[in-house]
Q: What sequence folds into this?
C-alpha cells in the first residue's frame, strides 16, 4: 500500500543520494553459514500460541469475496446492466475466457518497450474519435429513461415514505430531466447526484446507516427502448437522541435554556427539528436578557449498537444585560429623548430583543429615514443584580422630508373627485408635519392646511390642528364652509393596526348653506356657527386595515354640538357601526351594519351639512350620493335625524384579482329614531385589483324596485374595500 502523500519524501532526491553514497556490498566468498541471531528454542518461545483451528482455504476465499462485494457496495459504485441479460449469459461469457493454466508460454515483450519515451511535444494531440475506432459505447447513445426508488417501504420511524419521495422529487436531477433524451453518461451523472441527494435526505431524517445503490439498465445493443435508472435503498433504523446536554455557563433563570429547547431524549434525530430547536435558543436568549448570546456548532456522537446519538450544544450566553443609553450615530433625525418616546421600554428594563425590533419598526414607520439600524453594544457598566447595561447604537440616515400625494375617484351622484397634498414630515421637529391639501371635483372644491405631530409625548399619540375652506354643491345643499378643528387620537395606520383606537377634539365651523326650507316652500341660504366636541372609540380584531378577511370591528361616535345663528341649539349626534368578516379559503363573506341618531333638535333647525344622508359608494350602492331619505318637492334629498344601513358582500379572490357580489340596504328618517320601514335595496357586482397598499375597487350597482328619477346603474371607483 502506498503511504499517504504527507508521509512520502518530497521528490525522492534524498533517497537517491543515500543510495549513491552507500558502498556496494560484496557477496560472501566462502560457504560459511551465518551465525543465528537467536537460538531455535528462543524463536519458538517468541511465537504466540494459535487459538483454535485455522480456517480452510475455501473459507478464507469466500470471506475475501464477501468483503470485496461489501466494499464495492459501500463505495456506491455504479452498476450497469443490459436489459434481458441473465446469469447464464454472464456464465457463458466467463466460460469463453481462457483459464490461467491454458494460457501457454508467456508472450515475448516487444523490444521497442525498452526504447526512451517519445517527447511530449511530439505527441499527436488530436482527440480520439470513438466511432472511428469502431467502438460501440452504450453510454454515448441518446436515451430516454424512467427512474424509480426501491426499498423505501422498509422505512421505520417518524418519517414516511411519501415524505421522503416528496422531498426527493422537488430537487431531483432525474425528475428535473423529466425522462427526456440524454446520453448514458448524462444519465449516470444525474443518478450519481441523486444517490447523494437521497442519502442526505435519509440522513436528515435520522437514518444515518442508510445505504443507496445506483444502477442503470440499458436497452440491449441495437434495440429501441427506455433505460431504467434505479436507486435501491436500505434505510436502516432511525436514530434517536440518547442524551441532550448544553455546554454553557449558568444563566438566569437556570432552566432558561432547557425549557426553551423542545427536544428530549428518545425523540428521533431529525435535521429540521434540530435546526428549529437551536433557532429557538438563539431567539429566546436575547428575549430574556442575553443580547450577545451565541449558539455554537452542535456535536452528535452516534452509537451504532444502541442506534442513539448523544447531543451536545455549546452556548456562550454573554453578560445578562439591561437597556442602557441611546447613542445616535450618522445623520441624526431624532435625539435620544424622542427615541425613548418611541420605545416600549425604559432605561434599566431587562433586555428584550423583541422590544428592540419593535423600536426599529417604529423608527422606520415615521418615514423620516432612508436607513436606520438599532444594535446593542457592550459597556461593562454594572446595572445591579449581576447585570450590566447594554447601550443602543442607533445609526440614522436622513431620508426625504417632503412628499406629494395624489388620489382620485368617481361615483354616481358625487361625480369626479381628485385630491392632492404636499407634506413636510418634519418641519417642526420631532415629527411635526405641515400638510397643505386641496380637493377638486365636480361637486367639491377646497383648500386646507394641517399641522400634525406624531408620537406626541407618547408612542402612537397624534395631535392635529386643521384649518380648511370648502365649497360643497350637492342636490341636498350648497355650502361654503370654514373649519378650524383640533384632535388628539390613537388611530390605526396601514403599518400599525391597533385593536383599541380613540380620538377626541373640537370643531369650530362657520357655514353658509342653501337648502330647501319647508316653512317657506323655497330654497334659502342661511348661516350657521357651530361648535362641536366629537369623540370616537373603536375596537378592531380584523387582520388587515384595508382588506380584512377575518375578525370584526365596532366603532362608536358621539358629538355634542352647539349651533348659533338664526337660533341657539344644543343637540347631540351619535352613530354606531359594526362589520364582520369570515374567510373560507379564497372566499370571504363580509357584513356591515350602521345606525345613527340626532337628538335635541328638529330637522329644520339643523344645518343641512350636519344632518344624516344615505346613498353612494360608502353607504348604499345602487343609489346616488345622499339620494335616499325624505325629499323636497323637486325630488332633492333634505336629510334626516336618523339612519340605518346594512350590507352583505361575497368576495372571491384569485391571484391579484377578485370579484364581488353584494346587496346593500338603508334608509334615512325624519324622526330621531330610525323606523326600520321603507328600507331600500341595491345590488351589484364589482371587480378588485390587489396592490401592495390595498385593493383598487370598481363596483357597478342598480337599485332594486327602482322609482322614477333614480338612476338605473351607479358606478363607484375607489381604493380599499367598500367596508
A:
Amino acid at each position: 500500500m502506498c503511504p499517504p502523500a504527507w508521509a512520502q519524501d518530497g521528490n525522492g532526491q534524498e533517497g537517491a543520494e543515500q543510495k549513491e553514497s552507500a558502498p556496494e556490498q560484496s557477496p560472501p566468498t566462502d560457504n560459511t553459514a551465518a551465525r543465528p541471531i537467536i537460538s531455535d528454542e528462543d524463536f519458538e518461545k517468541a511465537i504466540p500460541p494459535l487459538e483454535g483451528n485455522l480456517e480452510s482455504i475455501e473459507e478464507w476465499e469466500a470471506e475475501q469475496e464477501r468483503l470485496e462485494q461489501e466494499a464495492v457496495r459501500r463505495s456506491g459504485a455504479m452498476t450497469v446492466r443490459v436489459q434481458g441479460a441473465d446469469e447464464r449469459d454472464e456464465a457463458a461469457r466467463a466460460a469463453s475466457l481462457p483459464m490461467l493454466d491454458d494460457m501457454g508460454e508467456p508472450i515475448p515483450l516487444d523490444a521497442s518497450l525498452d526504447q526512451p519515451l517519445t517527447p511530449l511535444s511530439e505527441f499527436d494531440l488530436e482527440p480520439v474519435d470513438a466511432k472511428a475506432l469502431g467502438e460501440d459505447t452504450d453510454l454515448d447513445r441518446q436515451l430516454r429513461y424512467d427512474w424509480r426508488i426501491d426499498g423505501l417501504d422498509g422505512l421505520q420511524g417518524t418519517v414516511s415514505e411519501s415524505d421522503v419521495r416528496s422531498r426527493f422529487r422537488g430537487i431531483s436531477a432525474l425528475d428535473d430531466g423529466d425522462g427526456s433524451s440524454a446520453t448514458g453518461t448524462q444519465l449516470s451523472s444525474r443518478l450519481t447526484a441523486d444517490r447523494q441527494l437521497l442519502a442526505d435526505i435519509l440522513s436528515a431524517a435520522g437514518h444515518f446507516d442508510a445505504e443507496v445503490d445506483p444502477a442503470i439498465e440499458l436497452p440491449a445493443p441495437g434495440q429501441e427502448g427506455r433505460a431504467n435508472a434505479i436507486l435501491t435503498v436500505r434505510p436502516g433504523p432511525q436514530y434517536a437522541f440518547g442524551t441532550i446536554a448544553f455546554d454553557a455557563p449558568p444563566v438566569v433563570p437556570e432552566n432558561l435554556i432547557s425549557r426553551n429547547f423542545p427536544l428530549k431524549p428518545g425523540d428521533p434525530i431529525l435535521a429540521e427539528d434540530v435546526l428549529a430547536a437551536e433557532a429557538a435558543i438563539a431567539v429566546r436568549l436575547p428575549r430574556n436578557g442575553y443580547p450577545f448570546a451565541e449558539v455554537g456548532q452542535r456535536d452528535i456522537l452516534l452509537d451504532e449498537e444502541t442506534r442513539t446519538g448523544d447531543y451536545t450544544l455549546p452556548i456562550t450566553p454573554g453578560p445578562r444585560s439591561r437597556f442602557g443609553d441611546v447613542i445616535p450615530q450618522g445623520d441624526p433625525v431624532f435625539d435620544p429623548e424622542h427615541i425613548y418616546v418611541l420605545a416600549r421600554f425604559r432605561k434599566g428594563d431587562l433586555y428584550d430583543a423583541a422590544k428592540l425590533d419593535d423600536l426599529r419598526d417604529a423608527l422606520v414607520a415615521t418615514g423620516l429615514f432612508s436607513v436606520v439600524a438599532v444594535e446593542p453594544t457592550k459597556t461593562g457598566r454594572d446595572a445591579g443584580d449581576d447585570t450590566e447595561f447594554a447601550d443602543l447604537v442607533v445609526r440614522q440616515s436622513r431620508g426625504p422630508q417632503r412628499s406629494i400625494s395624489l388620489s382620485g375617484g368617481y361615483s354616481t351622484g358625487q361625480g369626479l373627485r381628485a385630491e392632492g397634498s404636499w407634506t413636510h414630515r418634519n418641519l417642526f421637529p420631532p415629527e411635526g408635519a405641515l400638510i397643505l391639501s386641496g380637493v377638486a371635483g365636480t361637486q367639491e372644491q377646497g383648500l386646507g392646511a394641517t399641522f400634525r405631530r406624531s408620537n406626541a409625548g407618547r408612542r402612537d399619540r397624534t395631535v392635529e390642528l386643521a384649518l380648511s375652506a370648502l365649497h360643497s354643491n350637492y342636490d341636498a345643499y350648497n355650502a361654503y364652509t370654514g373649519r378650524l378643528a383640533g384632535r388628539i387620537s390613537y388611530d390605526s395606520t396601514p403599518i400599525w393596526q391597533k385593536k383599541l383606537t380613540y380620538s377626541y377634539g373640537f370643531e369650530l365651523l362657520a357655514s353658509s348653506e342653501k337648502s330647501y326650507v319647508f316653512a317657506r316652500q323655497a330654497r334659502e341660504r342661511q348661516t350657521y356657527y357651530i361648535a362641536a366636541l366629537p369623540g370616537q372609540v373603536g375596537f378592531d380584531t380584523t387582520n388587515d386595515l384595508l382588506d380584512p378577511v377575518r375578525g370584526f370591528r365596532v366603532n362608536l361616535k358621539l358629538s355634542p354640538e352647539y349651533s348659533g345663528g338664526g337660533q341657539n341649539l344644543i343637540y347631540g349626534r351619535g352613530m354606531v357601526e359594526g362589520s364582520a368578516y369570515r374567510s373560507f379559503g379564497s372566499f370571504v363573506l363580509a357584513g356591515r351594519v350602521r345606525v345613527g341618531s340626532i337628538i335635541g333638535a328638529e330637522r329644520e333647525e339643523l344645518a343641512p351639512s350636519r344632518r344624516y344622508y344615505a346613498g353612494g359608494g360608502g353607504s348604499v350602492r345602487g343609489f346616488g350620493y345622499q339620494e335616499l331619505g325624505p325629499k323636497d318637492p323637486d325630488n332633492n334629498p333634505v336629510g334626516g335625524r336618523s339612519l340605518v344601513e346594512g350590507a352583505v358582500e361575497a368576495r372571491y379572490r384569485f391571484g391579484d384579482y377578485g370579484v364581488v357580489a353584494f346587496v346593500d340596504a338603508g334608509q334615512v328618517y325624519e324622526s330621531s329614531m330610525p323606523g326600520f320601514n321603507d328600507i331600500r335595496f341595491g345590488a351589484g357586482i364589482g371587480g378588485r385589483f390587489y396592490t401592495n397598499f390595498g385593493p383598487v375597487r370598481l363596483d357597478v350597482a342598480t337599485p332594486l324596485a327602482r322609482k322614477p328619477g333614480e338612476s338605473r346603474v351607479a358606478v363607484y371607483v375607489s381604493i380599499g374595500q367598500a367596508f
User: Anything to note?
Assistant: The longest helix spans residues 184-204. The radius of gyration is 44 Å. The longest strand covers residues 500-517.
